[in-house]
Amino acid sequence: MPATLGLAWRLLRGGGRRGMLGALLTLAAVAVSTGLLLFAVGANHAFAQRADADAWRHPAETSPQKATAVQALSTDYVRDRPVTIVDLAALNDRAPVPPGMRRFPRPGEVWASPALADLMRRMPPDQLAARFPGRTPSGVLGRDALVHPDELVAVVGRAPGDPAMTADRGDRFGRETVASPKRVDRYASGAVSTVPQVYQVLVAIASVLMVVPLLVFGGAAARLTVARRDQRLAALRLVGATPGQVVAVTVAEAVLTALAGAVAGTLLYAASVPALTRLTIGGGDWFAGDLWPDAAWLGAVLAAVPVLVGVSAVVGLRRVVVSPLGVARRETPPALRAVRGLLLVVVLVGFGAVSGSLTGMGRVGLVVLLVFVTLAFLAINLVGPWVVALIGRLTVATARRPARLLAGRRLVDDPRATWRTVAGVALTGFIAGFLCLLNPTQADLAEGPPNRLELVVPQARSAAVAAQVRDRLAGTSAQVTVRSAELPGNDGPSGNDGPSGNDGPAGSAAPSRIDVVAATVPGGAAAVDRARTALTGVVPGRPATTPADDAPARHLLADLRTGALVVLTVSFLIAMTSAGITGASAVLDRRQTYAMLRLAGTPLPVLDRARRQETLIPLVVMGGGSLLTGMFFALPFAAGVGTAGALTLLAFVALGFAGIFGASALSRPLLRSVTTDPAPRPD
Predict the structure, then answer these.
(1) Within 13 Å and on the Cβ side, how many CA atoms surround 446?
(2) What are 467-476's contacts with CB under 8 Å, separation 24+?
(3) 3-state class of 159 per DSSP?
(4) Strands (DSSP E) found in 535-633
(5) CA dist list (Å): 390 to 62, 384, 385
(6) Which residues are paired to 485 by β-bridges?
(7) What is the DSSP letter of 75?
(8) Rounded distance, CA 225 to CA 230, Å?
């Protein structure tokens, strides 16, 4: 083994300046792949951490005999930012200590998150601090209690008999930002709420969209400068090296390069974490520690990348091991079979057969979707070289100029090498097509005026509540109105599916008819916040909110657009890196061919046009076809397509493809360099 590593190291060092450049290209490809793979793994870890931090606010209810505390949840707003309020009352001295706190809060105490405590100090008391007992925080919540660094959270200590701890809060509306008082005895059994679960599902889909192209690109990284390596290994076989020795040398060389690339990619990701923490999704920024995978996942990535590169390098050795003389003589490999194209057709037909039922299958539907998306990626990657060869034959048949003829012949001669150059673009086209139809707009969301504060109460109490609202807003020009409403899902006046809205114990019979007491407050955001503060406690446990506050879909749609652009950014970064690195590698692989053509009198501009066309033609065809394939996979979920969002994504796609063309053009100086002295030289 030491001898094999020594020989691999000597081959790396003995390749000369251009050989070392090829090794550096492989290292750069592996580094980018590792960094982006860590980003995908880190994103899943970060959303899982957020779900854990949210779970304590939704503890499991226990029996009255076991209960040690009572907990309730509500959501207030300040400057259009949500303020999560957790009300706690101890039933005995065994009350569980909430995460992020040193002890259980006493009645009248307020523990605030750092962001909320800072806001309470900076804003006038009548706009925020006066909503809480004492107006000043008794303690600051720690990291374990917060979903993100800028989250506004308050934990209010109350007595068990406080009206806020006995009144039903109307959580039967289906909003998980509100929870009526429940008896608890611990936080370990808390359930993750729906919103964090939605984000975890979305990041799982995004990870598949990012990771599969990364794995394809990482595998292709092992085959960069493949012609140079094959020539060298074929020479070793011809002078007596056994197939096992050739495989060992190849694996050692690939793993050495991949290990260096994996370490460089880890450092690259570490350097980017501070910038990633400022990416706002789910209402706020990120804790840097959440974006780092745990030690097990980090070790798995650092081990998997070299293994993937080594396996990919060995897979490419079949020609060297079986026919080293054919490699040395540069014989054209056998043509690819058309059965590759049938595999993609089978995947498309299979998805079309089950797509109609995916939306109603819940988690099973998600798993089926992810499986088919992965199969589509693999099928596109498998059919790609065959399509490139077909494009090459058509290009040769229709060529009228030397550059087009050279490009077509090159596509026919080595379609796999060309596919490695355009594979990133093709897979990115699939992602862009998939996301273009999954980008709804919020234009159709019904939102009321942002200055109309509303309180939902039972009809029997609406007059008294309205009078109290007028009294508290006396001296302002606020207009108070009362309108009737009916809870959704009730069949008639006798139903009792809604909140009780009274001050009795939670879970009491609820009327089906409710009233909405609304106060329209002129004067801007400051006046609205003062009115929110003035109305605190009018209905125990229920802050006054606007219709815009109760529209969480608005924030989710914004996050969907942000997530789509992040995935596209990562995908186009993969594609641009792939185009630039594999394009340069292709020039190094073909430098002797280019030298022979220059000696034969072929002008350099003709060679450059041929180089561009052998990339541009399959890129447009495969990129466009993958774009349409991605749109086909998104059709079952595209009921809420937003025109503005789709146009934004399409503009992003156009810019991305322009960047890919620019990255491919970076190999032009290298082409000029390898043809400056066209005299053939031994490798």
Answers:
(1) 0
(2) 468/538, 469/517, 469/519, 469/535, 469/538, 472/534, 472/535, 472/538, 473/519, 473/521, 473/531, 473/534, 473/535, 476/521, 476/523, 476/527, 476/531
(3) coil
(4) none
(5) 67, 10, 9
(6) 514
(7) E
(8) 9
- Tokens 């706690």 sit at which residue? 88
Name the residue among 27, 21, 33, 19 with its Cα closest to residue 423: 33
Largest CA distance in the chain: 100
Indicate the pLDDT class of residue 484, thresholds 50, 70 and 90. Answer: confident
Model pTM score = 0.74
Dist CA 97 CA 184 (whole Å): 11
Phi, psi of 90 (to 5 degrees): -85, 135
Rounded to whole angstroms, the Cα distance separating 643 from 237 reads 60
**Which residues does residue 263 pair with via DSSP β-bridges, in sequence order?**
none
Contact 423, 388 (CB under 8 A): no
Residue 132 tokens, joined:
């809480």
Q: Is the pLDDT of residue 558 over 50?
A: yes
User: What is the DSSP-derived secondary structure letter of residue 359?
Assistant: G
Neighbouring C-beta atoms of residue 464, cutoff 10 Å: 12
12 token code pair: 């790396």
Give dist(CA 139, CA 154) in Å, integer. 10
What is the SS3 assignment for 82?
strand
Percentage of residues of the chain with pLDDT beyond 90: 23
Q: Establish how many alpha carbons lie within 13 A of residue 197's alpha carbon, considering only the half-sphere containing its beta carbon.
A: 9
Angle between helices 415-436 and 194-221 (to 10 degrees): 170
User: Which amino acid is located at 104 in the chain?
Assistant: F
Give the span between the Cα atoms of 49 and 38, in whole angstroms: 16
